[in-house]
Amino acid sequence: MKNASIEQTLKDSEQVLKAQYHFSTLDKPPDAQINARMEAEVLLAFTLKKSRTYLRTYPQQGIDPAVLGQFDKLIARRTKGEPVAYITGQREFWSMELITNEETLIPRPETELLVELALEKISQKNATHIAEIGTGTGAIALAIAREKPDCTVIAIDISQNALNVAKQNATRYALNNLHFHCGSWFEPVANDTFDIIISNPPYVAEDDPHLQQGDLRFEPLIALESGPDGLDAIRHLILKGQNRLAKGGWLLMEHGYDQREKIITLLHDAGYTNLSWHDDIYKLPRVILGQKE
Ligand code: GLN
User: Fold this and answer.
1) pLDDT exceeds cutoff 90 at 30
2) What is the pLDDT averaged over residues 12-26?
3) Do 128 and 228 sit in the same domain of this protein?
4) C-alpha of residue 34 to centroid of ligand 1, in Å
5) Are the CB atoms for 54 and 45 separated by under 8 Å?
6) I need a labelling partner for 216 at 20 to 30 A (CA). Which of 5, 13, 61, 255 fits?
7) To test ligand 1's pocket by mutation, which of 91, 93, 105, 213 has the most ligand atoms within 8 angstroms of CB?
């Protein structure tokens, strides 16, 4: 029998994945959730050790039955809900291929907005001293450290296991302006001040049903869940961050799609000025900035 082609294999597995689609992720429009074709391509490219471009360039190429068997196993794992990024152990963010595992939140495309806004502020202010709270894979800190070699970026996480992943990622991109500290919130930098404090904190409410759905079921709860209204971490960053910001420094935070108004009030009440808020690639409220007077 003729070996199955790349294209036929992708079509078949796309159908299998679509039939199993219980992969909804929190606060994304439905069309962003139906990405079975993309997932099939990522998993096949990973199995073949080729790029997705290769798959598109050689759609008629046959796949060796043994390799097809390996691929089918990955598709089976995915149909049980395991996130693609944990199956492949990597996820692209800001044009970097980052190591990702169960110890870390999976970097999301909408978080690139946080990086874009930070880079803008860094350029405007000639900022040099940057802190990231809750770095996970290190995605945000790495992106900034790579783009701004004159900045020193301090990335903090309470999870040593997450930091081990972040450190591997930093080594991969040979960044020597990026430093990691294990600790709670600002504790490792209790005597420092920063021009920019940036965070994609946990912000999902503890009873939010999304925590039991899709990729979130597999991700570390500590990176997702933040008290009854999901704002515990954000409140903490607003209050404690103020002491760690230099005069005129900026706090930048990612947040949930329905939290903007509440956070505006929190920032106002804490005395931050020049607030600005921004929608993500899905046109959902996602990032907020405030300046310390
Ligand atoms: N936006 C993330 C989600 O969809 C949640 C990430 C976070 O809490 N920082 O699932």
Assistant:
1) no
2) 73
3) yes
4) 18
5) yes
6) 13
7) 105
